[in-house]
Amino acid sequence: MSPEQESFEQIRRVLALKRHEIPPPGYFHHFSREVIVRIKAGETGETHVFVGQLSWFKRFWHVLDTKPVWAGALGAAVCGFFCGWRSDLF
Amino acid sequence: MPMTMTEPVRRKAHSQEQEQPLAEKPDTSDELELVERARNGDLGAYDDLVRRYQERVYATVYHMTSNHEDANDLAQEAFIKGFQALKSFKGGSSFYTWVYRIAVNKTINFLKQRKNKQQMSLDDLDFNAEHDPDLVALISDKTPRREVNLAELQEKLNEAMLKLSEPHRLVVTLHDVQGMSHEEIAKIMECNIGTVRSRLFYARQQLQAHLSDYLK
Hints:
By secondary structure, chain A is mainly alpha-helical. Chain A has four helices and one strand, in the order αβααα. In chain A, helix 3 (56-66) packs across helix 4.
């Protein structure tokens, strides 16, 4: 076996590791059902948008949408601001 | 290519789950009928088709992205898009090849959009990894904790894969990881067999260079 073939043989062995990478237990039990549910919901399979491509407002909204704690904190901050601004009413 | 070098996220694998045998293809004798029924709106038939190829499609996308969450999204979206595009499926190739092509194109477009912001989120290794003769031959007998070496090797291998360009990563995934023939890969990638072979040769050279510290 030539040195190059031997090196490629080692790479082939290393790549065997990739075949042992498997998703969490039970992952495929629900996969097809989720696909069907999304088809029934009218999805077209073109929904994976990289957040970085969105306008700043849509990125901001995406953050609030995916992190409800931040949305709650923002709401509390806005309420606090208005309460402080209109403290003369109390 | 710079990457976000955070500690890769890992998920526990089930010790009893068996990896699908290399290059095993599902029985396709009734595939035409299932495709025709799905084309007419039969979601039960399409569900059968999805279950037939879900592991292989997920695996290809995962090996391309080294990210479980992205692979989940992209694999699902590939099948969803496949259903919507069934009317354009003319039967020139098998459904298997056709849906693979959708998944591969979708993944490559996604990776190009991500550019330098790739982040690994690795699936864990199954129970049999430690006993794989190929891996046993690689791991040094002098190392007392073999499982640590395997985890490190997994991380370095995925980093090395992510350094390859998408076409080179794809041929290595389809051939060396998933056991497809050059002919099958050429159909999926819509290129000739010579291109597949030269990309494979170059990709292996690159991996060899990136992983030289881990090869005996």
